[in-house]
């Protein structure tokens, strides 16, 4: 069961390597300054990392299987040869991805000099360098770098403008916050004044009611005195 798992993982790793070479070929058809070239390069880097991890896992699994005698020595040797092939293919992938300039120089010496056929079915030389000498290649690379620098300068200016806009927006927000704080302070002051005036009105109401009570008491007292005095005067007459 473990043997079948190892073989399945090996097939998956080999297919990933084949896909990697196909992506590199597809990438080399595009201009190096194009967005498609950059996108494919990023995808290839991720796949290359996955390929390396899968290869290391296969090696570790094979070492454990051979040390525990789960498979025969002959099978170990056969699988080791398979691993060597994958390791060689990994080097080819790395060279195809990173060494485009050296591959171009090899094509200038003569495409048919090796006489051998790429077992992966992928050309070694990018088509954009075909038929160019070293000086032309260097000039083209210099032009590409200059274009990339101009693109980076433009991007830097855009970022600088966006940063300034963000600063302006931040300053405006700070100003609005200060205005809101001022309004809040005025509202608090107005609220305090309303509470104070309400207390004054209640005090005046209480005083007014008290004065009315006293006036009523005085009038009643005067009425009582008048009632007592009038009959007495009548009797005397």
Short description, anyone?
This protein is mainly α. The protein has helices spanning 2-28, 35-67, 73-98, 100-109, 134-236.
List keywords for this structure.
single chain; 237 residues; Topoisomerase I, Chain A, domain 4; 0% strand
Topology (elements, then pairings):
Blueprint: H1 2-28, H2 35-67, H3 73-98, H4 100-109, H5 134-236
Helix pairs in contact: 1-2, 1-3, 2-3
- Mean pLDDT across every amino acid position: 78
Derived from helix and strand composition plus strand pairing, the structural class reads mainly alpha
Q: Name the helix and strand elements from N-terminus to C-terminus, one letter apiece.
A: HHHHH
Radius of gyration: 48 Å
The biggest sheet amounts to: none
Beta fraction = under 5%
Helix content: over 70%
Q: Please count the helical segments.
A: 5
Quickly name the level 1 CATH class of the domain at 2-110 and 119-132.
Mainly Alpha
Low-confidence stretches: 107-125
């Amino acid at each position: 069961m473990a043997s079948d798992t190892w073989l399945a993982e090996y097939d998956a790793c080999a297919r990933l390597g084949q896909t990697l070479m196909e992506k590199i070929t597809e990438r080399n058809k595009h201009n190096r300054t194009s967005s498609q070239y950059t996108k494919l390069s990023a995808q290839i880097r991720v796949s290359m990392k996955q390929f390396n991890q899968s290869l290391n896992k296969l090696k570790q699994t094979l070492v454990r299987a051979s040390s525990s005698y789960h498979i025969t020595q002959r099978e170990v040797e056969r699988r080791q040869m398979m691993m060597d092939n994958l390791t060689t293919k990994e080097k080819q992938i790395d060279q195809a991805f990173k060494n485009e300039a050296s591959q171009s120089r090899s094509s200038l010496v003569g495409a048919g000099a090796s006489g051998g056929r790429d077992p992966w079915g992928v050309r070694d030389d990018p088509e954009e360098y075909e038929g160019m000498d070293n000086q032309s290649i260097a000039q083209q690379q210099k032009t590409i770098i200059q274009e990339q620098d101009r693109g980076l300068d433009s991007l830097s200016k855009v970022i600088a403008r966006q940063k300034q806009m963000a600063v302006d927006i931040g300053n405006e927000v700070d100003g609005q916050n200060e205005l809101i704080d001022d309004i809040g302070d005025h509202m608090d002051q107005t609220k305090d004044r309303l509470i104070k005036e309400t207390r004054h009105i209640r005090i005046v109401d209480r005083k007014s009611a008290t004065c009315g009570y006293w006036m009523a008491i005085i009038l009643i007292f005067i009425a009582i005195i008048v009632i007592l005095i009038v009959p007495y005067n009548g009797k005397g007459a």
